[in-house]
Amino acid sequence: MKNTVIALVMLFLGCNTLPVGYDQLQRIPADSSLTLGPDTLASYAKYIPLGAADIMSLGQDSAYESRIIINFTLADSSLDSVKSAKLILHPADSTPMSFVCRPCSVAWNSNAVSWKMADSVTHWLNPGGDYWHIDLGSGTFEGESLVIDLNLDYLDTLVRNSHGIILFPSDTGFVAVHSRYSQTTAPRICLTYPDDVKKICNAVEDAHLVDTNNIHLNPQYLEVGSGVAFRTYLRFPLDSVPKEATIARAEISFLPHVEYRRNDTLSLGVHRLFEPFSRYARFEDEPCAHLNYIISPDADSVATLDIRKLVQFWTANPPDSNFGLLLTAYPEWSEMFRIKIPRAGPNALKLKLLYIMPPEDRIQ
Amino acid sequence: MRGLGEINPPADARIMSLGSPAALSYLNPGILVHLDKTCFNGTALAIGTIGSETGQNRFIGNIRPAGFHSAVPLPLNSRLVMGIDQRFNQDFDVWSELLSDTAYRYHIVGRGGIHALRAGIAHSMFKTGCIGIEYNRLVGSSREDWRFETLEGAYVSIDTIELTYSGNALKIGASVQTELFSIAGFYEPSVRLNAKSSRRVHGVVKDSIKDYKIKLPNLFALGATVNPFEKLVLVAGLEYRPWSGITVNNTASESNRDAIRFCFGSACPVGPVQLRLGYSYQPWYYTAAGNEPITDHRLHLGTSIPIPKFGSLDIAAELSRRDGGYLSETSGYLTLTLAYHEAWLKRTRHWGY
Predict the structure, then answer these.
(1) Facing residue for B159 by CB, picked from A20, A24, A246
(2) Among B28-42, B140-154, B196-210, B243-257, where is mean pLDDT lowest?
(3) Averaged pLDDT, groups of 10, chain A, 364 residues long
(4) What pLDDT is recorded for position B348?
(5) Rounded to an integer, what distance in angstroms lies between the CA atom of residue B7 and that of residue B320?
């Protein structure tokens, strides 16, 4: 009776997953643990296109400068009748920030534009964007939105001879601005015609262009950063792990030294490489592991990234799958940060592995 | 979960309710002293088990067909017997604890078993005796899925072990049945079973295929019934297989032990129904963790419900207590056998009405 009641209670509660009888198998798979350091490692810095950003940065300080470049499709007819042209922007935070708008003089592509490049083949003559030396307008971010009256004297230049607008920061600090990916707060230009007829032109392309005053890498460290991308390449020797092993745990851990940050959470990602490492090696866009590293004010905390699936893929598909991984900021257009990871020593990067071998047959 | 699995009793509720004396069941090809009409029976089995180990309890249930049997009278007092039943059951379902301090655990589900396709011939002699011989084609397969699961229930990889079995067995049996008593027994010589295992690791990587040649020791089964009083039948059964002699690829297995199973039972009418009671004891042929013996005590209860112009419905209920090391299992078995006896009866046609 007691057992019947227990059985019914267990059925109703659904708690029927207790490990009763597991030890009776007597063929519990063996497990092994390993701690590996990378056999190949490297870091590099790269000016990357940031046109995919949801939030763009505008500002400058002693380490970074960020400009915003926006393009609109403005029709060149009826310009004479335009009564006013207003640039409307929406900040994503409340940092006061003054800036100047200038027309961009070179065609660019948001998929490839960076501090150095206008598109995938064209370098800016002046890193950070080429522009006509005229001020279309200026303003200061305050509140939830900002409306800037563009100088109508240069409207013709803007429409016929320019390729969008570049915003240049005037103050120190950074403000976050919504990009074209926002439905309601995307950058736009509002043209007003006689009889108060208005025409709204949404941004068709935008990006922020980021530079740093110290792009050089310290050879004692691996580096990871956003804005200007600092990427770390790692490859671990996994030949000793049998291909039939199930990876139960695979964690990259390290103690980062934060060199620059704009907020307390640093977002890191691990990407699988598709081919042998080089600066131009293709890698998976979406990270296979992601970590929001929260900076602890009290003590240094170890960053740990779970790459179990990636290691399982490598070990199950030898020998030509393990091209290594890239440790990057994720996304790389996130607010600028830069961390250093020691190449050697107790705080160096390690891969901790636990793997379990397949079970034995019931007949032994 | 190991070895060849759980030994199944004869799939016949009538026999199971008497303690499952195999020698008195259709597993004995020489049991059919009297058979005047063709009969079929099919059996279904429902099992509910509560497992207990170190203060933790778990319930699992299972319903499955257990066997089919037919016997056909032939001229010259001969009988043709055929059927299919499961000799070894390899179903199980267990969970592990968290593996090595990770967020994962195993959920291991095993399904399958070894079945016997039986065909035999028997001859009844002197109206009190019968001898028979039966060929068993042993076939079977099992599949174990070792699911590597997260605590939320999603599984991230599966290692699968599949086993197929084949083999041949021969049985000879005999029985003597009088009004006062009956004695029956059968003998199954050593059985050679071939098993082939294949593994799929992570559902992708194929591991090597392994072949096993398993040699099962002889099986002896004896049974007796006595009718001390009218309508009261006492039953006893004994089975012995020296499991310590099992070999796998010509290597003796150290973890197996000889097993003598015995049972007692009785049948008597209570009112309009036939009531059957039994008890059986089955030590297992392999040991539990820690090399502890596994014991299995069962109480059996059953009855028959006649079905006019059809046959009968036999019902058996069993309560089993199985102990091995820290694990104990309390199981309830409900077995239903639908027996059909009325086929091809000779009918007398009466003209005029």
Answers:
(1) A246
(2) B196-210
(3) 59 64 80 92 94 94 95 80 93 92 96 95 95 94 91 91 95 94 92 91 95 90 95 94 89 92 92 92 92 81 92 87 94 93 91 89 80
(4) 52
(5) 14
Taking CA atoms, A214 is separated from A46, A123, A223, A228, A336, in Å, by: 12, 20, 12, 10, 13
pLDDT for B190-227, tens place per residue?
999 999 988 888 766 565 688 999 999 999 999 999 98
Give the span between the Cα atoms of A138 and A101, in whole angstroms.
Answer: 6
Q: Tokens 């009968």 belong to which residue?
A: B312
Residue B23 to residue B100: CA distance in whole angstroms? 49
Distances (CA, A) of A34 to A256, A308, A354, B7, B92: 22, 13, 6, 42, 33
**Tokens of residue A318, six digits:** 């030898």
Residue to mutate among B108, B196, B202, B256, with most A CBs inside 10 A, is B202
Contact between residue A174 and residue A158 where contact means Cβ atoms under 8 Å apart: no
Interface of B with A in 319-348 (CB under 8 A): 324-327, 330
User: Which tokens is B28 given?
Assistant: 């004995």
Q: How many helices (H) and strands (E) does chain B have?
A: 1, 21
- Residue-by-residue DSSP string for B29-95: TT--S---S-EEEEEEEEEEEEEEETTEEEEEEEEEEEEEEEEEEETTTEEEEEEEEEEEE--EEEE
> What is the distance between the alpha carbons of residues B13 and B339, in angstroms, rounded to a whole number?
10
> And the tokens for B65?
């067909």
Those residues with Cβ within 8 angstroms of residue A346's Cβ, 6 or more apart along the chain or in another chain? none
Which are the contacts of A8, defined by CB distance < 8 A and separation ≥ 6? none
Q: Report residue B102 as tokens.
A: 């990770």
SS3 call for B181: strand
Chain B residues 48-77 with a CB less than 8 Å from chain A:
48, 50-53, 56-60
Read off φ and ψ for residue A13, nearest 5 degrees.
Answer: -80, -15
CB contact under 8 A, A358 and B96: no
Reported ipTM: 0.76
pLDDT tens track for A278-301: 988 999 999 999 999 988 776 678
- Residue B155 corresponds to which tokens in the numbers above? 């599984």
